[in-house]
Amino acid sequence: MALVDELLKRNIVTGIAIGIGVAVLAPVVLPALVRAGKPLAKGAIKAGVLLYERSMETFAEVTEVADDIIAEATAELTEEANAAAETDAAAPEPAA
After folding, report:
1. How far from chain centre, in Å, is Cα 2?
2. Using CA of residue 8, residue 12, residue 16, residue 17, what is the dihedral sign?
3. How far apart are CA 33 and CA 36, in angstroms?
4. Is the Cβ–Cβ distance between 54 and 47 less than 8 Å?
5. Is 92 helix (H, G, I), strand (E, B) or coil?
6. DSSP classification of residue 94
7. I want to staple 8 with a disulfide (CB 3.0 to 4.6 A). Which of 15, 25, 27, 92 is the partner?
8. How many helices (H) and strands (E) does the chain have?
9. Measured between alpha carbons, how far is 96 from 33 in angstroms, rounded to an integer?
């Protein structure tokens, strides 16, 4: 940008020539850039979709593992509570 600013400050003719060059070349260059950019954009979008799908699969697996661990912990707590209740019920009450 500084180079263009310097050119424009030094000589108005240079600035006009650059402007005309851009105006003349834009209709030729822009379609070529669009043609080149479309496959790149499509490739980036495809990569993003694949990344999203893989991350959703990984998230589902992690959620399943966490659910299994929670279910096991809950079952163990219930088992321990039942065993403690049975022990308390089987033990004779102390005489007063």
Report:
1. 36
2. negative
3. 5
4. no
5. coil
6. P
7. 15
8. 2, 0
9. 96
**Contact indicator for 30, 24 with CB cutoff of 8 Å:** no
DSSP state of 93: P
Distance from CA of residue 47 to its chain's centroid? 11
The one-character DSSP state at 96 is -
3-state SS, 5-43, equals HHHHHHCHHHHHHHHHHHHHHHHHHHHHHHHHHHHHHHH
- Nearest-angstrom CA–CA distance, 46 and 52: 10
